[in-house]
Amino acid sequence: MTEEKAVIQVRNLVVKYDERTIINDISFDVNRGEIFVILGGSGSGKTTVMNQIIGLQKPAQGEICIAGEDIVTAFGEGRQNILRKFGVMYQGGALFGSMNLIENVRFPLEEFTKLPIDAMNSIAVNKLCMVGLEDFVTFMPAELSGGMRKRAAIARAMVLDPQILFLDEPSAGLDPIISAQLDKLIIDLAAKLGITFVVVSHELPSINAIADRVIMLHEGKIAATGDPRTLAQKCDNVFVRKFFARET
Amino acid sequence: MENKAYMTVKDANSERVVVAFAGRLDLDSVADYWRRCLKLLDLHTPEIFAVDVSGLSYCDSAAIALLLEIKKRQSEAEREFELKGLTARHEELINAITNSSHKPSDHEMPPQEITMTIGRIFVNFLGNVRDNITFVGMVSYYLFQSLMRPKTIRWKDFWYILEDVGPNALPIIVLIGFLVGLISAFQSAVPLGRFGAQIYIINLVGIGLVKEMGPLMTAVILAGRTASAFAAEIGTMKIDQELDALTTMGLEPVRFLTIPRIMATTLMTPLLNIFLIFFGLVGASLVTRSLGYNFPIFMHQLYSAVPLKDLVGGMLKAIAFGFVIASVGCMHGLKTRFGASAVGNSTTQAVVASLVMIVIVDGIFATIYYVLGV
């Protein structure tokens, strides 16, 4: 049953930089439609795990299946098909600095579809509406605030209607109000579009607001997994308890 | 408040060294006493080293670091260390420093053997060679693929880069070309004048510009202007994770970013070369005119001195230079690492490597032309 629900399956993942083991034999599933958070302290390997799943880096060992297809061994057309199943929002947004907002959001459509320019513009504006940036379509990324850049990056990541959205530190560097707005946006998109979210974060208020399930990384292993709101009480791991209690 | 620190040596022999500090021992004043205390330690190697800090009005973490250093050295030599006159404030500071999870003084860098350093440099060199070969292979593959399927090229980017590399570089090309022609003609006027051969200024400048100086100067200008711009632009994109974004969209950054740049630069370099040669000849003609050779004479002499094959040879060189400059600039942009100085380093490396490659390619062309008798 779990196998059917799982849209991402990570099995026995090992990541090494030179001789140093960063991630040591972890396995987990992400279920379809859930908001799944990879949680951990600074330097715990959260973004490294995400980079493995989205195929930016190759693991030393392990299997990563996205919708049943292994991204580690895929190449050519097969890899392209897997990449089309997800979108990614990077920590700083990673919008193309030489393009305005609508060009940024339209960009994947230009590359992967044969739609007429009017249709592409219309789709891009719709996506920008969904993230509340319809009044900024001609703005350059440099003219936007950090929160707006992140929302624009979500719009770009969604433009090809992916099954999964990866968000790297969506709340990082944002004030509590903007952060809460972004959390609400993620919850709305998950509910309305049925997108599976994989979020990398260490911001506890944001995680408590959005996460259906979390895994917590510590020293290269999964220290805990479950509902973040009850994790601290149920978990025996000292680090996990300290992390949630903000103790040193 | 006392702004100076004072150190008194009350006792100094192999049994016991006693020093007393007074006043304000801080970052500014501790350096001298640090040396003096360690000298006392080395000189007497005392069984007990005692420090009296009761006279201190103020001490900061630098002063505490001195006390801890003496304690550490005594402890390593299995000798004693005594500290007298500690106030509550001093103890707080010592606790704050000694309880820190980071203890840099305990951490020693592994020794750097010369053989290890040479080995590391060699491994890095081999890694660079491998990267360069991989890059050349990828560029060749994607260039061939793009030329076979022109629709895959991002023409919007191509035209933008074409404008930046070509027309936007024209003012500097014109200025340098004019000055090179003018100066070459002036410099050669005196020695040729001694033999009554000033008419051959036109031959000298014409052949020099068309065969060598034109392509070379154009390439040098583009190395400083275009290769650096490509490296900086792509390097910044890498740091901003734009290249990661392209990769996860399924677009190969090498194809996406380098092919339009290489095509535009390869196309524009010979055109800029023509402009540089033309304005160089304009500069030279002004000098020869002032020496009594009017324009028709200049043109006649030029036609007789510079055959078409020299112009074609120079243009082929310019095309090769354009390809090399763009490739090297893009490659160094893609190899940008992370950190504040990364883009600057990539830009510098791109310019230096471009200049080296230009000279190497020029040498190859010179050899080929010599063998072919061109």
Q: Please tell me what the overall shape of chain B is.
A: elongated
Portion in strands of chain A = 25-35%
How many individual helices of chain B? 12
Oligomeric state: heterodimer
Order of helices and strands of chain B: EEHEHEHHHHHHHHHH
Descriptive overview:
The complex is a heterodimer of chains A (248) and B (374). Chain A is of the alpha/beta class. Chain A has a domain at 1-85 and 195-248: P-loop containing nucleotide triphosphate hydrolases (Rossmann fold). Chain A contains 10 helices and 10 strands. In chain A, strands 6-7-8-3-9-10 form a 6-stranded mixed β-sheet, sandwiched between helices. In chain A, strands 2-1-4-5 form a 4-stranded antiparallel β-sheet. The longest helix of chain A has 18 residues, at 176-193. Chain A is globular. The N and C termini of chain A lie far apart (40 Å). Chain B is an alpha/beta fold and 374 residues long. Chain B folds into 2 domains: 5-104, Transcription Regulator spoIIAA, CATH 3.30.750; 125-372, no CATH class. Chain B is built from 12 helices and 4 strands. Chain B has helices spanning 30-44, 61-76, 88-98, 114-148, 155-165, 170-194, 201-239, 242-248, 253-290, 295-305, 308-334, 342-372; strands at 5-12, 16-25, 48-59, 80-84. Chain B has a 4-stranded mixed β-sheet with strand order 1-2-3-4, covered by helices on one side. In chain B, strand 3, helix 2 and strand 4 form a beta-alpha-beta unit. Chain B is elongated. The N and C termini of chain B lie far apart (86 Å). The model of chain B has no long low-confidence stretch (mean pLDDT 89). The A-B interface holds A 54-56, 79-80, 83-84, 86-88, 90-92, 94-97, 107-108, 111-112 and B 236-237, 240-242, 244-245, 247-251.
